[in-house]
Design brief:
The first copy, chain A, is an alpha+beta fold. Helix content of chain A is 24%, strand content 37%. The first copy, chain A, has three helices and eight strands. In chain A, the strands form two sheets. In chain A, strands 1-4-5-6-3 form a five-stranded antiparallel sheet. The first copy, chain A, has a three-stranded antiparallel sheet with strand order 2-7-8. The longest helix of chain A is centred in the first third of the chain and has 19 residues. At the A-D interface, helix 1, helix 2 and strand 3 of A face helix 1, helix 2 and strand 3 of D.
Chain lengths: 139, 139, 139, 139
């Protein structure tokens, strides 16, 4: 199963060179991440945070930017998971425009209790959801 | 007394038309507002929020945009106060580039206790600081 | 006819007080504005800008913020038009959460040729689209 | 020589968990990058872009986030360079709060002519400036 969120490059997303200001790619990734919880895990991201007090801080990011994006571009952001540990996991985000890969990120995420800001095991429900979008083979 | 904060238009502040994306003017205003607390009131904005639990939500905004700004522009954001009520006040922000007025905003701000999100009187210390940057005459 | 764009308050949209950082309301308004061109006028906003070189700089903003929004809130942003002049118009944005009005803005927009940055009459196609979402009575 | 830019975590920089929304770290890095041109190379970033038509798109990013930052934190962003090639270079950004390392990024940057969006050799002036902040040893 793939988790894909379609987005648009907005008027305010570009920089002085007329292409997407690269920090905003991380917004696109994060929107896909937020939607994952409601759509795949069945718990909206905000409920998980504020009721269950489960948080997922980003601890490591590796990103390749290949094709610059411009205002008006329609993109698909695909999220898959390549590794699931006890309390952290690695997810991959691919940004596609017209089916062409424009950027790709691997993001390592920890799991914490937000009140204590301490690592906790990934709760079963979210672990099962992460398994659903696990890649068959590494890429 | 005038409270002025010098800022730069950053590479990521512009839009697809090559000028500052207008929502980002409100960031420039807010940076001046944040600095007001540490510099004029003697209490850093974050301390006031998190220790005193005093917050200043924005309730009304009126803004005129006259001259478009571009990446690299050096601007001065002047903050003055035109009206101080029991629990709200009106502040004015002028964005100047090379002394020329480019944008002007009047912003009405309430005062609340952040735990209860209820209106409270402006605490004396902040009222005194607002008086320091009060305009002599309306403009 | 009403033009309505449903949006979500994102994880990164809030501020240190836990509510939407008010400058980001203007992003919500602008997303509705951008979508208006593709959906109502039949010309995507980016095509109008980059092919026709027609731009719509914001010249005046009046906004009331009534109800604070929080991460996870589902909102509808309604755009209507209250006044259409020769080369400028006034549009109104209402932010509703569960049908309840949370914020309301009136935004005056000029029409320019982006190459010369000079005022031009509103092109007929866009004027007709603005008429489609004109309010019956002022509110 | 070190290139260091002091910054503040702003009210609008945090997320629903009350810590800096991680995409905004890339703004902090980019502000240091922009300042490098004016301060170390002697050519303001905007002049280089718009007059010389030299651009520096980001092609690869690796970042470790160690310590979460909060609104009000005063940070130093240190920029050094670890590798300088013919038309690309690798710079390192360290975010320090009270001398403690909170985040660290390695960013690979290409050099292009902005009109043709084609790779060009790093111009001598900027190569010399990059050499000035080159690390003595890899870290």
């Amino acid at each position: 199963m793939k988790h894909v969120v379609s987005q648009h490059v907005r008027f305010g997303d570009v920089d002085g060179a007329g292409i997407v200001y690269y920090p905003r790619f991380f917004n696109y990734f994060h929107v896909a991440f937020e939607e994952f919880f409601g759509r795949v895990a069945g718990v909206p991201y905000d409920q998980m945070l504020y009721k269950e007090r489960v948080g997922f801080p980003t601890v490591h990011v590796e990103t390749d930017f290949g094709v610059p994006l411009r205002h008006g571009d329609a993109i698909d952001v695909e999220m898959t998971v390549s590794r699931i540990g006890k309390s952290s996991f690695v997810s991959t985000y691919r940004v596609l425009r017209g089916g062409k890969l424009c950027a790709r990120a691997e993001i390592t995420t920890a799991t914490v209790n937000l009140d204590r800001m301490e690592a906790i095991p990934i709760p079963d429900r979210y672990r099962a959801a992460l398994e659903k979008i696990r890649e068959d083979t590494s890429s």
